[in-house]
Design goal:
The structure is a homohexamer of 139-residue chains.
Chain A: E1 4-16, H1 25-32, E2 41-53, H2 65-80, E3 83-84, H3 99-111, E4 119-125, E5 130-134
Parallel strand pairs in A: 1-3
Antiparallel strand pairs in A: 1-2, 2-4, 4-5
């Protein structure tokens, strides 16, 4: 049976700041530049989640996208949309919210909510020009 | 010699309906919701076809895109554009036209029209937010 | 006080067919070509609605976009999304569903749901390449 | 001589919060919902500035876009990019940073930096779906 | 009867160079910078043409888009696509090919091919960030 | 530690021509059609470069994007933007500038400027519809 990959695109708008609290303000400013702005800045993040599987012969679905949407909303979007990634999100606590670190955290939020081995890729775009992708710890 | 992947994007506008004729109307309505609408709905589908190969030293081409375009038009686009995917398309006969099933059917339409092993990926977007990809039965 | 124009973009996916029932099948085929396909085709329509007004000094809003979204959903989107524009939509009854005619019909659905003189423009894109705009009967 | 309109698109990423400090927290929460989040949220703003004029016969330019870019950067982008619109921007001090109010403020920043009567429109998109346009106090 | 505006988007890929042959090389270099590159550069131009009119009661069309497409191809696209705007295009002879000048020249190519008073706007984008619009000599 | 893939998108505007100087003009015209136009044509190229790695625990970065941007500008963009790919670019000398050949050449320009094994993919889009990807000689 064929493996097909389906992708669902979602959005959230959040504030953040790149800042390592274990380092000095000077180090943070030198390392992160304007991304370290003390009063935050923000983005329209674009989240693309890819799930692999064989289409069900009865429905034609790898996974009902309304189920995937519900999982994405309940596990990720509701916790990040119109929030501050440094302050407001329990599952990002202690994580420096670079796109790289956030995409791994989103994978970890989703992997257990889906059947084993089905989550294939999480892609997070911070801007039109910058994105990070994660294929899990075994990829 | 290097392997390069070229991708050609095409479009078609079609009507469809998610409906399994072996199941009751109630099951179909419960399973597919508004996608089961009796009088159809439709989409601007976006089709991306990726072909792998070594660039020809004389032309610089993996495959002349005017040839690839002709194959896509003759084998796929002319059969799907401004059509009803449930009723009008011989190569989709008996196939529930979910994005997943259609992308596999398009692969099967294309694979024999290209040199063996060269078709790499078919990606079909139903909307800006939903897409399916297929890399063939051996991937 | 300044006049500012706010625009809200929405989407709906619908089937339709260009067909004038007062004319012969031959005339329809000659006039509308593949858009006349008997079994319908469809589009991901993009709807942009622009409202004019002075920002409220207390809220900064010309119009609360959550109110505008609700109006758009209740008056337009719920009636068109995952529907057949020729068969399923009472407010399009008897209207040949060209983009031009549909955009005028959407204006007429919205104009009374907004304060007098505030609806400025309705824009409807049928594809990436084709769109129609309407500024009301007095423009 | 013909009047031509040229448009330059720019971007900035900023944090903000919709909050009227003259009102109670309850009123703000009820009025602005998640946009009132105490710890801010943010956007990738898209700014489009349109300037009108006759093309110069010697250069073909209505206005050299490198000059327009410099004006946009010096007057607007450098003050808003990677900033907090409520806290960090002198020219937004005391202004509730709705898209409507910010677009008027950007017009006011630009109008004196351009020859009289040449600034035609400022358009600011907060997200893919929401935008505000301003054509000046006399439009 | 209502006036509706329809817009058709087309594309052409062309080389050009900003260079005024009546001026010195130094003046050209100082004025146009990298756009003056002696061996040309190029763009994927996007052309949007807007036509105004009342929808025909029999067809629902302001203007049959297949007719508009044919006019655009015959009068504009075939003459500009895969061409050099400075060297290959009779209707641009002697015109410095800034976006502003080209958009006026395209208007002049189209206005007589359409019914009087129906051409409303020509918009030409040189890049994602730069565009010029022209509404005719009387606007 | 997880491997994350970051992608940076850049742009350059260039002229080119598909022409094999070892072949006759007739062969070139028959093979490349309008892409062989003697006076060149051009494109807004979009370049996407993907780098793999483990996020640094101190910065959260796979690679500081300001460093990646500098490398892209110094090694690639400054040499291609507003240039003629056939005439102006030393690292393309003797290379027929098809998208396939240019994407391999860009990989070769970048691979030594990045830590060993970190460059994952170079993607070059010539138009909205045509793109080439390269994953290196060992992929």
């Amino acid at each position: 049976m064929p493996t097909v990959y389906i992708t669902r695109k979602s959005h959230f708008n959040a504030a953040h700041r790149l800042h390592n609290p274990d380092k000095s303000d000077d180090w943070n400013k030198a390392t992160f530049g304007s991304c370290n702005n003390a009063n935050w800045h923000g983005h329209n993040y674009v989240l693309e989640v890819t799930v692999a599987g064989e289409p069900d012969p009865t429905t034609g679905y790898v996974l009902d996208l309304s189920i995937l949407s519900r999982i994405l909303n309940e596990r990720v979007i509701e916790h990040l949309d119109h929030k501050n990634l440094n302050l407001d999100v329990p599952f990002l606590k202690g994580i420096l919210p670079s796109t790289e670190n956030v995409v791994v955290a989103i994978w970890n939020r989703l992997v257990d909510a889906l059947p084993a081995g089905r989550l294939h890729c999480v892609r997070l775009s911070e801007t039109e020009r910058n994105a990070a992708e994660y294929f899990g710890p075994d990829a």
